[in-house]
Amino acid sequence: MHVHALVATSETDPLIPGTIERRDPGPRDVVIHIAWAGVCHSDIHTVHGDWGPAPFPLTVGHEIAGTVAAVGTEVSKFKVGDRVGVGTMVNSCGICANCQAGLEQYCLNGNTQAYGSRDRDGSITQGGYSSMIVVDEDFVLRVPSALPFETVAPLLCAGITTYSPLRHWGAGPGKRVAIVGLGGLGHMGVQLAHAMGAEVTVLSRTLNKMEDGLRLGADRYYATADDKTFVELAGTFDLIVNTVSAALPVDRFLGLLRQDGTLVNVGAPAQAMSLHVQSLLARRLSYAGSVTGSVAETQEMLDFCAEKGISAVVEVIAADQINEAWKRVLSSDVRYRFVIDASTFA
Ligand code: NAP
Ligand code: ZN
């Protein structure tokens, strides 16, 4: 079936309205009528070729919230009318050691991404900037009714990408956590770390968004453009989650960790980042990376958000505002996630 979508045709041309093809639902498939599509900085990196060439024409988007329109004959977890979500993965091999361990985001055979991946039928997957998607039920999330629907989509990437490292590295009471960059990922990281009971500091370039950061749950807020920040906070944090979309001076941020602390990069800049090993040695520090989270952990995160009464702070846009919205993301002029109203994809 053909469905409405926004389509990228090159690294430089604006996204244009068009149509894409969705497969006929198989027995295990859920057909989702998309209501809201979040705009992640990764969508922009992908189309702009920051991580290598993209397969054009391409529809991006991996923060999807919608309603089940139909289900295949073997689908047991969902029924027509359910509110559901889809994130960055739509399939994985299911048999490798990582998939067996419930870590399908690290599938050893490469999971199938929501867009730009080769699908089982050989086609290239097309993402959430569209009116409908067909997904295997094992990669569909249940959206708790307590979450305001238009705020849910960003949880499927920005939410889980910050939740997973916070959980993995033990953010909680007695832990000092810093979130670097107050954008889409950062504003979720602050809320989640606060809700987990950690003491939370925002490290943003300036103090422009300080009121928002404190309202979202930060205890402290510092400007990284001010050299004094790196003196005052030296040796402070157990965990730093770097959400920045550009390369940062890693050594400087390692200097903010206390004994056995970890700096985890979830930001995925185009450029390489270097560090001096000596920065790690002195206090047995770790420099780590993390990618999204598993399906089960994503469900746990959605339920946690519902229980704690937190969700994304969104600015709703119509489909024809997407190119302007991307420019605003690139200039960090977003408070704090754009979400496309999918009824405007016609
Ligand atoms: P975003 O909304 O644009 O936020 C990025 C933030 O980084 C900005 O708000 C800004 O924070 C800071 N920043 C931007 N440019 C900067 C620069 N030149 N120097 C210093 N700070 C800068 O982007 P996002 O959607 O949150 O995504 C952030 C990054 O995470 C992207 O690289 C994205 O691809 C990646 N990502 C990774 C995963 C994963 O699984 N690991 C998942 C999703 C996204 P301040 O204004 O507060 O300084
Ligand atoms: Zn994303």
Which features characterize this protein?
single chain, 346 residues, alpha/beta, Quinone Oxidoreductase, Chain A, domain 1, Rossmann fold, 7-stranded mixed β-sheet, 6-stranded parallel β-sheet, 10 helices, 23% helix, binds NADP nicotinamide-adenine-dinucleotide phosphate, binds zinc ion
How would you characterize the overall build of this protein?
- It is a single chain.
- By secondary structure, the protein is an alpha/beta fold.
- The protein folds into 2 domains: 2-156 and 311-344, Quinone Oxidoreductase, Chain A, domain 1; 158-289, 3-Layer(aba) Sandwich (Rossmann fold).
- 23% of the residues lie in helices and 26% in strands.
- The protein has helices spanning 41-47, 97-100, 158-168, 184-195, 210-215, 227-232, 250-254, 278-281, 295-308, 322-330, and strands spanning 2-7, 16-21, 29-38, 64-71, 83-86, 89-91, 112-113, 132-136, 141-142, 176-180, 199-204, 220-223, 237-242, 257-265, 286-289, 314-317, 337-341.
- The strands form 4 sheets. Strands 3, 4, 5, 8, 9, 16 and 17 form a 7-stranded mixed sheet that branches. It has a 6-stranded parallel sheet with strand order 12-11-10-13-14-15.
- Helix 3 (158-168) crosses helix 4 (184-195).
- The radius of gyration is 20 Å and the shape is globular.
- The two termini are 15 Å apart.
- The structure holds NADP nicotinamide-adenine-dinucleotide phosphate and zinc ion (ZN).
- Zinc ion is lined by residues 40, 42, 62, 88, 157.
